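Might I ask for a little of your time on a matter of protein folding? What I wish to show you is a protein chain and, alongside it, a tokenised description of its three-dimensional fold. I should value your view on which stretches of the chain appear to form regular backbone elements. You will find the record immediately after this paragraph:
***
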Amino acid sequence: MKKLCLLFGIFVTTSTIQAAEFIGIIKPMDDIKVSVPLDGVVQNIYVKEGSYIKKGQKILKLENRLQQLEVNRRKVIWKDKAQLNAAIKNREIHKSLLDSTKELYSQVKAVSHDEIQMLESKYYTLSGDIKMREENEKKEKIEYSIAQNLLSKYTIKSPISGVVIELELQKGEWAKVGKPFIRIVNANSCYIDINIDESDSSRLKVGNKIIFTVKTKSVTAKKEGMITFISSVADMASGLVRIKINFQNVKNRVTPGLSAIISIDDFSDSKSVEIK
């Protein structure tokens, strides 16, 4: 619909979409399914269907006794510095002996040069051994960190805040990698997935704010949303263009998953045209 208005000697052409109605699907912004990162037996489940959980909250724990023992073993190996300390002490003794022998050789020639070389060789060997043990200690620390990281994967935490709407595992069951066991939904922020005629979509832009009315069987709610997506390709069969409108679902008044009749009120794109 087009209107011409005279304003300060200028005709203003306004294209308006008035109360255009479309059928769309209400979807939550956050709707995820979580699976375990490794196979194992469920030791504990900390949530139940219908419960609200926060981001980072524990959901499930797999049996981890063997991995906990591996972490403890790696820690003992990393913390054990007995051989390194003995090598350092031995090098200090040889350094003292080498210095004393060099002093005797320089003053009274009481020892041979070959003996000095043997002591120097032993000293450098001990220094190399200490360097190797220090590098091994770094590797042992890394292996301990790897074991700790692997242990943490036995406890699954929620990546988002939301409500548990599906839970398919029980304590004692076998959890398998890649098979989702829980679905978590946060319906506080939603979007409407709709398909509209190309003639209407061509007048819309990503970032436009729209006032619209959502009508379902149980509720009629007036909302303000923002267009976040407009498909650049129309459906070949229907000629309709898919768009997404994000909105805040205060108090979860609108139920995600339902279809809704969306009435978009007074959205306009004004262009000024000077009279010749």
